[in-house]
Task: inverse folding
């Protein structure tokens, strides 16, 4: 319920003309420092888990990190300078809090996932939100095909879009609004995915998440290395 209310509040606030004013705390330097501190804490938790080999208070960790990180990670879905959020941050003229801290965050996600997908299973607010959805709904639809059939193409498309910014391609212009705005189509897709997660467990994580696909690739490589 808390995650749902937080998401609805963020969506409504981001839609208003005064969104930047009401969400100013996300741009604040102190909030950015807080994010770095909680990720440093996450690495400490991970190290403790590896050394002590004791179970962690998963519910508490997921709740704390979910509430703190969900607004930061979810904001680009509702307001962005591009029709496709997240992938064009490098050339964004008006970076959102995710765009400001994305390099640090992305590196942290990948590093933590090297150890048993720690980010995906313990800290990711999207994953936690979908776990809550699964507990609410009694319907459980399973697909006969592997989720990788969708996750890897999404990862390739994301990589292609990001490479356009590195190459200075003019194609990027076709994805840009030119101003920080509500992204109607992206919101519609996001709401559809969220609604689907009530019936298909962890729908986003299993079928679309690029970070999940990267983590799966690392897992496959690690198994190959240790098998030798």
Result:
């Amino acid at each position: 319920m808390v995650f749902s209310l937080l998401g609805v509040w963020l969506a409504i606030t981001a839609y208003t003309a005064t969104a930047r004013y009401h969400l100013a705390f996300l741009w604040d330097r102190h909030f950015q420092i807080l994010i770095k501190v909680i990720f440093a804490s996450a690495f400490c938790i991970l190290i403790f888990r590896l050394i002590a080999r004791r179970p962690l208070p998963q519910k508490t960790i997921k709740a704390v990190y979910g509430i703190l990180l969900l607004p930061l990670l979810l904001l680009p879905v509702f307001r962005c300078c591009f029709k496709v959020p997240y992938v064009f941050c490098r050339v964004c003229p008006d970076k959102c809090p995710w765009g400001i801290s994305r390099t640090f965050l992305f590196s942290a996600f990948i590093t933590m996932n090297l150890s048993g997908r720690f980010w995906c299973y313990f800290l990711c607010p999207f994953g936690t939100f979908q776990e809550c959805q699964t507990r609410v709904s009694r319907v459980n639809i399973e697909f006969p095909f592997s989720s990788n059939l969708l996750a890897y193409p999404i990862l390739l498309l994301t990589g292609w879009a990001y490479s356009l910014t590195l190459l200075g391609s003019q194609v990027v212009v076709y994805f840009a609004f030119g101003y920080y705005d509500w992204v109607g189509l992206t919101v519609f897709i996001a709401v559809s995915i969220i609604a689907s997660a009530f019936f298909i467990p962890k729908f986003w994580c299993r079928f679309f998440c690029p970070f999940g696909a990267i983590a799966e690739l690392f897992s496959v490589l690690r198994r190959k290395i240790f098998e030798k």
User: Anything to note?
Assistant: Strands lie at 79-82, 176-182.
